[in-house]
Write a structure and sequence with these properties.
six-stranded mixed sheet; 7 helices; 42% helix; 6 strands; UspA; Rossmann fold; alpha/beta; Universal_stress_UspA; UspA domain-containing protein; globular
């Protein structure tokens, strides 16, 4: 993971518990924060907010036919297959916009916890593996994450919350929006 954002709003006080909030821009993450403030947080908790976003990669933007392995067949048959050409300049602009949005998101969550001992981290990487690798380095008391409930496909394949629950070394609290 490439860390791009870090802010430490820690107060000098000792903390008894280290709680890590793995958050994104979803309503479920916001609900997890609100629920935790009401039912979970204590005055002497240290909060770490983490947000990992997937990178924009030109290699991920490819022709539909190349992706399916049909490029040579369609070309030989003279069939016009739509292409999405990679544009490094647009990719860089998109990365810049996403980084700015990520910083705004983290600042917004920081305001939710302004009375707490707080740090936050934003990075670019695999939202599954890099998130968990980063959290594992913290040796926290509890990971708090929202669950989107994105339907049958995600429940079979597993979303980020499922991945964290099944692979974390630390206890995980999944807060599901009512």
């Amino acid at each position: 993971m490439k860390e791009i954002i870090h802010s430490d709003h820690s107060k000098d006080s000792e903390h008894k518990r280290l709680l890590v909030f793995a958050l994104d821009s979803s309503d479920c993450s916001k609900y997890a924060v609100d629920w935790s403030k009401k039912h979970l947080l204590k005055e002497d908790d240290k909060i770490i907010i983490v947000n990992i976003r997937a990178p924009v990669e030109p290699s991920a933007i490819t022709s539909i036919s190349e992706k399916t392995g049909l490029a040579s067949l369609t070309e030989k048959a003279g069939i016009n297959v739509p292409y999405i050409k990679a544009d490094p300049e647009k990719d860089e602009k998109l990365n810049h916009v996403q980084a700015k949005e990520q910083k705004q998101l983290l600042d917004c969550y920081a305001k939710c916890f302004e009375e707490c001992n707080l740090e936050y981290f934003g990075g670019v990487g695999d939202p599954y593996k890099d998130l968990l690798d980063f959290i594992d380095t913290l040796k926290c008391d509890l990971i708090v994450i929202g669950q989107r409930g994105e339907g049958v496909l995600k429940s079979v394949l597993g979303g980020v919350s499922d991945f964290v629950v099944n692979h974390s070394k630390d206890p995980v609290l999944v807060v599901k929006k009512k």
